[in-house]
Amino acid sequence: MGRHPTLRAAVQWSYEGLDAGEQVLFDDLAIFAGAFSPEAASAVAGATEAGLGRLVKSSLLTALPRSHAKYRLLETLRAFGRARLDETGRLSEVSARFLAYYADLAGRAEVGLRSRDQRRWLDRLEL
Question: N or C: which end of the chain has fewer CB atoms below 10 A?
Answer without folding.
Answer: N
